[in-house]
Amino acid sequence: MSFATIAALLVALLVGAPVAAHLLRRRQAEEQPFPPAKLVPATKPMARRRSMLEDRSLFVVRALSVLMLAVLGATPFVRCSRLGLARRDGASVALAIVIDDSLSMRAPLEGGAGGPGKRTKFERALASARELTTGLRSGDAVAVVLGGAPARVALASTTNMAAVTGALEGIEPSDRATDLEGALALARELLRSVPHADRRVVLLSDLADGAPNALPLGGGSDTTLWAPLPELVASGSDCAVTRADLRAGKVRARVVCSPDTRAAGEGAAGISASAGRAVELRAGGKVLTSAPLGAAVRAEEVALDVPEGAPEELTVGLTPGDAILEDDEAPVVPAGGALPIAVVVDVASTHVATGGPPPIEQALAAMHLDAEVRPLPAVPDHADELAAFAGLIVDDVPGFTPEGRRSLAAWVERGGVLLLTFGPRAATAPLGAGFDPLMPGVVRWGPSPSQGADATSAVFFGPSAEGLAKLSPDGRASFDPAAATNADVLARWDDGAPLLLRRSLGRGAVFALSLPLTVDESDFVLRPAFLALLDRFVGTARARGGARQIDVGDAFTFDGFKDVAIERLPVRAGEARRPIPVVEQDGRRRAVAPLQGRYEVRLDGERAVRVATVPEREIDLRPRRVIDAARAEELGGVVPSIDASPYVALGLLVLAVLELFLRAVGQKREGSASTPA
To answer: 3-state class of 86 per DSSP?
Structure first.
């Protein structure tokens, strides 16, 4: 509240003036006839008594006038506004409202540190969605999509406004990463089935999807994109504790900070929010030890010694807090080692001109995915050897022996994740070698009739899909139609043939790429999509294998258990346990972690603790661009505000007229009372 507003409201204290005026008002002494008084000479009366509060109606009118003057001065523009859309010729519209429920939307709407009393961007987005739906008419259609990774459909397209209201009431904030590409793709898909000519995707997001330099959102589509709230656009910076592992008496906390978007100049990307902050090891709210952060941290691992006698439940937090308090603290997890990923590559055929390990190993090491890369000369033939790995990458597969296929299939069914890339060696498989049941049918290698992939079919790669348009392949693998049966086609060539498949097998999964990971056959390993593929592969291996620690938005998997229950443990005092629904999908029982923190799992009576951590890609508040047409005024905006000042002034005028009337009536009454009979 500004000083001018406070000063105007202080005018209300003048309401005491009418009270004082009425109480201090002196009136003429009342005369009572007393016959003997005529024998005494008349003298001028000197004594007057104070009157009690009289003319109550006049007093009320004057007090109301003073109060309305205070209101008029304090709120010269009392606004009653809401978000509304502009219609084309008054016709019905079909909306797909994308609400970003990711971690970055927990930032306060105004600058400064967050807190319980601050209105967040998520709350503003949700309130705006409600405002839009209240202004819709009969015949309008609405769908609701959530933009946290992975993007989800909260409500399919419907004309039932009661269902829309119920869907909006059930939306809650989360600690997920952002998946705007996937959310917009889902929104456009939902609008394809509606008969409306006017179809719009309403984007309510801060646009911080971790890809600030990607192509603007909204391009290349015939569906209108509308981003009506520029005040939601991300700004500032944030630091987060993404994970904290306990090893050999030390806690190693990984701290990630985003670049500061408020800085100006070419060096803005190098400014960090870590200056003046420290990392603390805490137990029950008590600080056990701390260490300062660097002045310009982008990603740093801080080691903290655990004091003797420290309790088992520890947390690592940042001090002081920043815009997003929810990512400033993470539970300490006893580490069982990095995720083991085996890589089988022919070093002779897969090389880099600059030297060093093959591209797969270099990329996994550079991405800091907390994965331990173990190069192997060949694929292990025995299940015992495969059991040591959570994921396996085999480049340019020459085929597997029957024993090898059985071992690999059994390993995948127990939760292993396999990435097979097919190159020229797939066509020269030895006699008896094959890929079934990992990849049914025959795999062939030949010239590629396409030069790139269809970016619209490659939502799996996120913003990196645009780089697949021109891969310049010397050849490509072709899969039998049986391979795509009961499989997810994650990307297609521009002629419709599968580029990347994913087949679920038991608890695990098999990825199949129709290109080898070598620069001699295509440009795939030179594209950002190559890194996106490895990131998704490692994330799948961590989730499918029943990992104790996953990213928020991923799912804990429970196969082979009859009684499964999971609850999120309280993070702060006063919080309650939060049950998490366990659903069955594709024959597998899964529970998605929407928030970071500890989760207690009960599996057939046994208890275990698992942890969900903040995705690192979400700690970047640099906004993604949108096309200029998404801000067009003809799409809609804030409905013109109602200025309440004229109504307050009219009320004052009515009170003034009423006061004159009451005074005239009062004077007439007093005059008639003083006239002698």
So the answer is: coil
| C-beta of residue 427 within 8 angstroms of C-beta of residue 398 | no
Supply angle C-alpha 212, 618, 129, rounded to 5.
Answer: 85
Kindly report the backbone phi and psi dihedral angles of residue 556, in degrees, each rounded to the nearest multiple of 5, phi listed first.
-75, 135
| Pairing state between β 564-568 and 578-580 | antiparallel
Peptide bond into 173 cis (omega under 30): no
Q: How far is residue 616's CA from residue 254's CA, in Å, rounded to a whole number?
A: 10
Question: Rounded to whole angstroms, how far apart are CA atoms 642 and 80?
Answer: 6
Measured at the alpha carbon of residue 541, what is the angle toward residues 147 and 492, in degrees to the nearest 5?
60
> Alpha-carbon distance 155 to 144, whole Å?
5
- For the record, the structure tokens of 208 come out as 């911080």
Cα separation of 391 and 510, whole Å? Answer: 10
HSE-CB for 313 with a 13 A CA cutoff? 13
Sheet holding 508-513, edge to edge: 371-376, 339-344, 391-394, 417-421, 508-513, 498-505, 488-492
Distance of CA 193 to the CA centre of its chain: 27
**Close Cβ partners of 356 (under 8 Å, ≥ 6 residues apart):** 362
**Could you tell me which residues are beta bridge partners of residue 200?**
95, 224
Alpha-carbon distance of 74 to 62, in angstroms, equals 19
**The residue count for the chain:** 677
> In Å, what is the CA distance from 411 to each residue of 333, 405, 406, 425?
27, 10, 9, 24
Distance CA 377, CA 387 (A): 17
Nearest to 123 by CA among 104, 113, 142, 109: 109
Q: pLDDT tens digits, residue range 220-256?
A: 888 899 999 999 999 888 999 998 988 878 999 999 9
Report how many helices (DSSP H) and strands (DSSP E) the chain contains, helices first.
Answer: 12, 31
Neighbours of 317 (CB within 10 A): 20
Cα(75)–Cα(67) distance, rounded to whole angstroms? 12
Between CA 407 and CA 389 the distance in angstroms is: 13
The distance in angstroms from the start CA to the end CA of the chain is 61
Q: What predicted TM-score, i.e. pTM, was given to this entire model?
A: 0.63
Burial class (CB in 10 A: 0-12, 13-18, 19+), 319: middle
Q: What pLDDT is stored for residue 112 in this prediction?
A: 44
Q: Give just the sign of the alpha carbon dihedral 160, 165, 166, 170.
A: positive
Bridge partners (DSSP) of residue 461 are none
**CA neighbor of 468 nearest in space, from 450, 487, 481:** 450
Which residue type does 221 have? S
Q: CA dihedral in degrees (653, 654, 657, 663; nearest 10)?
A: -120
pLDDT of 548 above 80? no
- Which tens digits make up the pLDDT trace of 382-429? 777 888 888 999 998 888 888 888 889 888 887 789 999 998 887 776
Q: How far apart are CA 6 and CA 1, in angstroms?
A: 7
